[in-house]
Specification:
Elements: H1 3-29, H2 47-70
């Protein structure tokens, strides 16, 4: 598998995951007894912690994609 193919697969997976998350969120809102409080994380209301966790996860995703893009393909003999 070519490195470019891996990037395409990764990007497709991220797009599909985001789309499925959006569909799940919309479906949950159709349930009359659903409240946002049911899915909030413990640090959701504390803005500095919430922003820090989001930033760290985003940086981690960037590093993952960057390392995957510079990885050289191993040649098999």
């Amino acid at each position: 598998m070519c490195i470019r193919d891996s990037g395409i697969i990764l990007a497709s997976g991220l797009m599909a995951g985001g789309a499925l998350g959006g569909v799940l969120g919309a479906a949950l809102r159709l349930i009359p007894s659903f409240h946002e409080d049911l899915i909030q994380t413990p640090f959701y209301a504390i803005d500095p912690i919430s922003q820090s966790v989001s930033a760290l996860l985003f940086i981690g995703l960037c590093v993952y994609v960057w390392r995957g893009s510079i990885k050289t393909e191993k040649k098999t003999s």
